[in-house]
Model the fold of this input.
Amino acid sequence: MLSRAMSLWRNVTRKQQIESDLDDELQSHLQLLTDEKIRTGMGAEQALRESHIEVGGLTQVAEEVRSIRVGATLETIGKDLWYAARMLAKRPLFTTVAVLTLAVGIGANTAIFSVVSAVLLRPLPYPAADRLAIIWTVLGNEGRAPASGSELVSLQERSRLFDQFAGIWVQSGALTGKGEPEQIKLGLVTHNFLTLLNSRPQLGRFFLAEEQGKGRAPVVIISDGLWRRRFGADPAIVGRPVILNRQPRTVVGILPAGFKVAFPEGANVPPDIEAFIPFPNDLTSDPRDPSEGYIRVIGLLRRGTTISQAQAEADSIATRLRGEFSEYAEQALHLQVVPLQGDVVRGVRPALLALFGGVGLILLIACVNVANLLLSRANDRRKEVTLRAALGAAPSRIIRQLLTESLLLSCLGGIAALGVAWWGLKSLLAMRPEGLLRSNTIELNFWVLAFTIAVSLGAGILFGLAPAWQAAKVDLLGALKEGGRGTSSDRQGLRSLLVLSEVSLGFVLLIGAGLLIRTFIGTLRVNPGFDPTHVLTFQISLPEVRYPKREDAVTFARELQRRLAALPGVQAAGVTSHLPFDDDLPNWYSYYWPDGAPRQEQNTRMADHRSVLPGFFPSLGITVVAGRNFDTTDEVSGRKVVIVDDTLARQAWPNQDPIGKKLNLENGAFVRDVAEVVGVVNHVQYHSLTDPVRPQLFLPYPLASRPNIAFTLRTTGDPQGYVDLVRREVAKLDKDLPVYHVRLLETYVAKARTETQFVTTLSGVLAGIGLLLACIGIYGVTANSVVRRSNDIAIRMALGAQQRDVLGLVLRQGMLPVFGGELIGMTLSLVLTPLLSTLLFGVRPIDPITIVATLVFILLVGLLACALPAWRATRASPLTVLRYE
Done:
């Protein structure tokens, strides 16, 4: 190896000397051979000629010697690259178009891959992230439910395949004291929750086991963002008390910057929790009723344990619990173990994979376009390739040279693609849906750069193979006779085949975009069950220290509602425990059944529970379709009443009048009770615009008060103008009570459409790019065909062909691959569009309207792309064309 390294060094640093020595050696060898022949009696001239013949040509021998030198391959590659760079520089317009085309294709792939890498491929930023799993409670037909404290304790006691379990329940807390009151997201956790997700705090320590439970020392750990915003990043805050929910709590730790809690959608665990406290209650004392679950449980698998093994153990534990306790048996308790990594990205995975497939098609179309450009350029270089072959260049040598040019072109496109990717990624992050929880980790890093390099090289080989192979198949005799005029039929056929590929790929993109556009239009037409226009919402949280009794909370809510309703321009003011599409706080749902239902029909259906005051339905424009609204007489009389939506009414009492019926439900104290149905309202889309999820039942707020209260104001003018008035009215009742989440109700509805809008917008952009590239490809092939056949067209017109005949000839030739591409594209779409089914709403994957519209649209685009070259062909003068023959 050392010897070869030294040889390489000499060949590089002493190249001129080595070449001079080689020439001297060859000349010396030739002279010796000539002298030997002269000594045999041969004449000097004849001897020199015979020596040349015997040697086989000095140039060829020198080339053979150079080919076996150390570093000869590098030297050849360098020459090929230099020649390729010169050829590209001679055609700046061609190079610019090809590089920009590749930059769009590779850049789009790089931008989307950076998102896929960060969200789907990169592990969660937690220690032992690959061993973290989330444990869902399954109750009958209701999956992905939270666990109760008793379930968590049972798992800790009975599991052998998990090292530990931890849980979290997110609430809201009021931070008061110095500065303005501030409402923050508060996580109630087991003492080991943060240690599972973080190695160590930025300052201080994590919770101790003895700090969890009733009567323990009040402590809190705060986020880096809250520490810097509220306390000026003062390290001395550790060990000092802060006032949280009107109770002093000692700060024992500061979390690292950038720390977020990543839980799956629907877990009601937002990523931006700003403070954590240990569970203040003893979990072992929680009731065994699984319908009263509130804790999201995660577990750390033992090393070497698989998810299937953990699931088998969870099934065994659930079976034993059902056998030991009737509460679990009645509600058919099951446990589901899911990898935390996979569950976190469960909601966005289909959309990201669909987009990644879309940009892959864009890259293929870009490669086909560049291949077409190279084929056009190959026609202009036929003399060069022919002369190379005539002088002895092997087909492999020609292919290598042309592939080198293609790879250099693709590398230039890859460099330009980084700029496109940076701009595209910036745009993606600006419009990203909230489902991309780890969006702060999306960046153009080393792995994304490696992906760009790999794609660039692969693209260079992909679009360069066909032109290089075609150019290497040289018929020397035919090419030299032809003199560089015209074009071969097989090359034209290859170009038409490439156009066919472009059209078919563009067809698939356009079909997918059309389906997603129809889906988004469908979400715009969905009736959410309420009217979000001119509605302002805000939330407050009543601390238990200040409002220990239910009556205190009810009095406050009623008084604030009365004051808000009296404001000028307010049509209605409402109070509720939950706002539509607001998943920051835990949902409240439980089983219901008609009173007196057989046992086998109990614990089979669940409904969302909402507590409201009279005025809530008018403030949201929710229609009471039967019966009446709540009124003050319900509380005075002590009647237990409930209002249900029309979905629940149909399920519980099909083809019956539900008014006056009795419903068994979970009351405000989380205890089974029986209430009389006094009204029916339209179903409200509380969680999703496209999925009904669960029906709803509404309880009077005085009987089911909650510490977190949402207020709704329907106004005649701009709702934003009431923000200061709202804060003023709240301060009159309690100056230390923060007002938070002050938003228009339309904001929540727009949020529900965000992911669909995100995917639809990107798919539409990709389809537009694909269609534009396909249109350019069709135009390029047709225009090139017209140029190559200009003599033929001129002769036809000189012999009497009409303009319409020439126009028809060009259009038929240009549109034939378009028709073929549509046929193949339609076949591909029938296979691929069912993969989008999870992203669609209100439209089937195989939709005749979308297919027909795409067929017509691409047909028109193809005609437009062929029309200009065809028109030019009819305008050409036969005399002018034939004069140059």
